[in-house]
Amino acid sequence: MNSRQEKLLKEIVESYIKDARPVGSKALVNKLKVSSATIRNEMSELEELGFLEKTHTSSGRVPSSAGYKYYVDNIMKPKELNGEDILKLQTIFSNSELALSDAIKECMNIISDITNYTSIVLGKDSDWNTLKQLNIIPIDERKVVALVVVSNGHVENKQIVIPVGVNVAEVVKTSEIINKYLIGTPIKDVTSKMEFEIKPRIAAIIKEYESVYSMFQNVFNEFTEKNSNVFFGGRTNMLKQPEFESVDKIKNIMGKLEDYEIVKKIESNDEGINIYIGEESEFDKDVTVVKMSYQAGGEEGTIAIIGPTRMEYDKVVTLLNFIKSQIER
Amino acid sequence: MNSRQEKLLKEIVESYIKDARPVGSKALVNKLKVSSATIRNEMSELEELGFLEKTHTSSGRVPSSAGYKYYVDNIMKPKELNGEDILKLQTIFSNSELALSDAIKECMNIISDITNYTSIVLGKDSDWNTLKQLNIIPIDERKVVALVVVSNGHVENKQIVIPVGVNVAEVVKTSEIINKYLIGTPIKDVTSKMEFEIKPRIAAIIKEYESVYSMFQNVFNEFTEKNSNVFFGGRTNMLKQPEFESVDKIKNIMGKLEDYEIVKKIESNDEGINIYIGEESEFDKDVTVVKMSYQAGGEEGTIAIIGPTRMEYDKVVTLLNFIKSQIER
DNA sequence: CTTAGCACTGAAGAAAAAAGAGTGCTAACG
DNA sequence: CGTTAGCACTCTTTTTTCTTCAGTGCTAAG
Predict the structure, then answer these.
(1) What is the pLDDT of residues B181-229, one digit of tens each?
(2) The dihedral formed by the CA atoms of B88, B92, B95 and B97, expressed in degrees to the nearest 10
(3) From the CA atom positions of chain B, what is the Rg in Å?
(4) Which CATH class is domain B83-125+229-327?
(5) pTM of the prediction?
(6) Which residue of chain B comes nearest to A106, CA vs CA?
(7) Which of A99, A153, A163 is the closest to B96 by Cβ?
(8) Which residues of A touch B98 (CB under 8 A)?
(9) What CATH number does the domain located at B3-75 have?
(10) CA of A245 to C1' of C23 (A)
(11) Residues by Cβ under 7 A, strand C
């Protein structure tokens, strides 16, 4: 691809990102300083290379997924960010009391506002984390709160009504035993370990040990299934994009965003920024997912921006890079 | 309204709920056992009374908001529920370990599936609840989890990074002081009480008391602002309804569902079932909100079903009544 | 009061026509 | 030989016209 073609691709991608309208040859004569006929020639060459597409035989050109990809990889320059936005984000990180994951969530929320795309923060799948601590906090004589702390710093609490025939002291005692024998166990193994390590031990000292046992099993079960380490920002921002004007498309995308099985596939292990355009996104041919994993101070996860393929890539990438630089400190 | 008119309204409402198509006079001759001309006469009378509407001069009739209202108040009979569904709901409540609010959330999720409407569970606004307990759980030497328990049984946890120059013991000490002096304080007053009751006390014993003070203020602040006691079931079910085929309508409704300020207005204080049809719903002229408050064992809140005005009122009301009966036990 | 009959209405759909944006190709130009 | 003006052609979009049809309101008779 020669430099004029690159310039041409750049202008087409940027114009289409801006207006969501196919770009014709005449519209670019000012930018390229050559006649529309020349531009047409170059365009048809870019089309043969697979970087451009036509919506019909005599329409203007639209970037293909490959076109966006080339743009992202070779042409795009980091975007100057709005000072005000930067400041907002920086303020969040400079609030040193905030846990990293909370700070990230707040930031992604703001980024959703800035960009009008949807953002997702995905805590690392709890299967791989280990039990760090289990606390029982009595609320009254019939209720306690079970607090499970996991190695990645994630905390989950659940209110429990104590079964009849059991008293708070017994529940607390059981939690002590669990803490003694199960700390460090991967969350996914807790259920089986409970049966062999804990059940026999409490059987010896608690009358209604079956109730207590199943009570704690429930706590862990729920925790394992939990989708709660998914955070969304600007869930409906997608609707603002002109390409999602068909109800079916909206249904499709919103439906996928509701489906935890699909969303969790976004999870990334790469601390670099990865961009999945169109079909690659696994959402829709017109959707792009930009994602990046983070890891710091024992917390890890993935952050992602979901938007149309017609995305302001420069802005999004620059924003994520900014977040990355903040995380690293 | 005479009894034939009631019967007519009933048939029109039920037919429209079923098919989402305006109902013409001929379609009802079998049901009413009179000629289409007679039905037309009655229809135009019902229209004058404000219970029916036409989409255009020569179209069939559609129930107006008032028509639905009359149907709900005077005509509708409780609906026989599917035994399988009942069983599912009952199982949840019979799981005695579940906190009430968790049980309700699960139930509403199931009801969303059954009905294809959206459900909402709204914890009572924390302004009116009092602080019951504050726990600090050390995670490591720089991190703790602050756990705030509120009188309604709601628990919120937040991970905090301890400011430099402060140690865990000081944080724990502060939490003990807060527990000593602030328990029973309405959540909305905690912030001001912190300043006058706690700040002076910790100033005496902690060097970096300013940091510790603002740290705890942050915990409570976040808690007060928190939207987290809103639970949604079947958020996108609305999209399945044929009346929401226009993108603008979807945007409008989904947007409102994302806006905490609007959603929290659903909050109800009436333990009876209230139905807000059309404009009254505050969502859209084609939306109905059915809501009811609950209160038991110190927990309280509102549950609501949001769907089209063309809603299966009998089913929804019967389901909510069922939930109510379960809560009362 | 009920009903058959019929003219009338307005939406929805199909078909045809007109307008417009943009292309590809050819031939001329420096 | 790359660049450009010119022009026929293609396909979408918009507008217009026509047709169909479900359903109404009204009238007059039972």
Answers:
(1) 999 998 888 989 999 999 999 999 999 999 999 999 988 887 766 556 7
(2) 160
(3) 26
(4) alpha beta
(5) 0.88
(6) B222
(7) A163
(8) 160-161
(9) 1.10.10.10
(10) 27
(11) A 21-27, 36-37, 40, 43-44, 47, 54, 58-61; B 34-38, 41, 55-59
